[in-house]
Amino acid sequence: MTAAPYGFYGDDFTGATDTLANLARAGLRAMLFVEAPTPARLATLGPLDAIGVAGAARALAPQAMRVELNRIGALFATLGVRVMHYKVCSTFDSAPGVGNIGVAIDCLRRHFGNALVPIVGGQPNLGRYCAFGNLFATAGGAQAYRIDRHPAMSRHPVTPMQEADLRLHFQTLGVSVNSLDWRAYAFPDAALSDAIENAGNEPLLFDVLDDAHLLRIGRVMHERSARTPMLAVGASSVAQAWAMAAAGQCEMTASPSLEAAQSPVFVLAGSLSPMTEKQIEAAHSYRRVELDPCAMHDASYRDQCRAQIADGLRAGRHVLAYTHRAPVDMKADAAPLAARCAELLRDVVAEVRPKRIGIAGGDTSSFGVQALRPWGLSYVAPLDRGVTVCRVHSDEAATHGTEIMLKGGQMGGADCFERLVYGRL
């Protein structure tokens, strides 16, 4: 098998497509697989600069994570990657019992021998910043909030962020982390290397305030991984740092513009985030179909919804199907609801075969992509900040070549769904 220098595992599908986009925008030949690729599949694609696997570790309990990530670690070690990127949400939200990033580090570092495990603490292009080990994030505007005071992430229903100091946050996840603050990036190379060595053998959290910091981190990753394969942890900023250092500059290559849709667009929104609600309200070009979360378990109800959606698409209308605001006691049923939404998506696509679709919501995206049964995704164009349109690669004619947007609840601007119809406005 031909080695790819860079490998990444996305702990959810939406974030994995953002990493794919950042690598592709840098001119790297990258493919995101929905399942671990076989040697035969890789052989059909020719040389790749980056190989990714989209997973669901963010929603798994620790033991299930260990099974999944030990398998993934062994795969990427066999492929000979120099950097194994465990891609997490840019807000680092995680809990001891679900999506535990500490468990991921413990599993994956056993497959990659480099003593340095960089944790890249911010992603400026998404409004994520790390200073003196503390994480800050914007919330759709210019103001940056300490993550434990963020209006959404401090109240996340599954993994609320209650500590801004990521070193303390990682302690609750069972891993000890050292840190390197942003002032060290002014050091000459030798002095920066000494600062890294003096930080010890624990995973090392790197502050990030701007792209120049990412460039410096990327140079460290290139230099150190050339000696011994390395595990790196963080959002798509890890890929940005790697690509910037490869290019020797902070600027990314120009992105292609998404063209307007030539046929009806279907969007399924399962996210309950305030940003997705704004996007639904602003989606004036769509016929709307509201889905009752309490009735989605009923096959006959889903069939009625499928018929309504299919009729709209066949009539040449863009259609947005969305779950209405669920009652509080529905939070515990998020995964079953996402699975039922995925079944609805699968049935609509099989019947009408829309050429462009969008899915909003982390769980909804993960279940939705799996229901469509692609083997991979490739990059088409950016849609909005942190939102990417990809092309489906599948052995099934109904979905092969379909353009698909996967969007986390907090990602994109209010006109995100409109952009999916008309291209980048």
TrEMBL record:
Any one GO molecular function term: ATP binding
Domain Four-carbon acid sugar kinase nucleotide binding: start-end pairs: 267-417
UniProt keyword annotations, A-Z: ATP-binding, Carbohydrate metabolism, Kinase, Nucleotide-binding, Transferase
Domain Four-carbon acid sugar kinase N-terminal: 7-241
Pfam family, one: NBD_C
SUPFAM superfamilies: YgbK-like
The family this protein is said to belong to: Belongs to the four-carbon acid sugar kinase family.
Protein's name in the database: HPr kinase
Gene source species: Caballeronia arvi
